[in-house]
Write a structure and sequence with these properties.
Elements (H helix, E strand, L loop, with lengths): L10 H21 L4 H29 L4 E3 L9 E3 L6 H24 L4 H20 L1 H10 L15
Antiparallel strand pairs: 1-2
Helix pairs in contact: 1-2, 2-3, 2-4, 3-4
């Protein structure tokens, strides 16, 4: 596996898309002191970047453990990939889950350390909202895996249509 696997098809499209979102968000953040609407765009974009960081960490962990993943079919997909629960061990599933939780925590801690501005406060509030959604949707799946000592049979119910 190449160290730059994320630049090969089919991941290249998502890498370019997400790098663009982060770049535009950072540009808006740097210019936000001049224009208030830019601060809100930057805040929303940085919060979206937190979500993307979370998703890419899941994908990175999946590649590290050698999990078979299927890339999302649409460029605007909410999730980068799908995994077949029949083709992954519980330990690998746990590591992939943990990577997302750790990434979210790191991102939120970074925001807490930034100088306070409308952008960072907006991003922090939205990022905290995304972290809460992660706990609501993903934590029960991870806990189920630990309690049952098995890989859950499905991902997040109802969200497969977004891939």
């Amino acid at each position: 596996m190449s160290r730059l696997w994320f630049l090969s098809p089919p991941w290249r499209l998502f890498a370019i898309r997400d790098a663009g979102i982060v770049l535009i968000s950072l540009m808006c953040w740097m210019c936000a002191s001049q224009f208030d609407p830019l601060a809100w765009i930057a805040g929303a974009g940085l919060a979206l970047s937190a979500y993307l960081f979370h998703e890419w960490s899941h994908l990175w962990a999946a590649h590290r453990v050698g999990a078979a993943v299927q890339p999302a079919k649409k460029w605007y997909a909410l999730f980068l990939f799908n995994m077949s629960p029949n083709e992954i061990s519980r330990e690998a599933f746990s590591l992939i889950s943990l990577a997302g939780f750790v990434a979210t925590l790191i991102y939120l801690l970074v925001f807490l350390g930034l100088p306070k501005s409308v952008s960072t406060q907006t991003a922090l509030v939205l990022g905290q909202g995304l972290a809460t959604l992660t706990l609501i949707f993903e934590a029960p799946i991870a806990l189920w895996s630990m309690v049952k000592n098995a890989v859950p049979p499905v991902g997040i119910p109802g969200f497969d249509r977004f891939n």
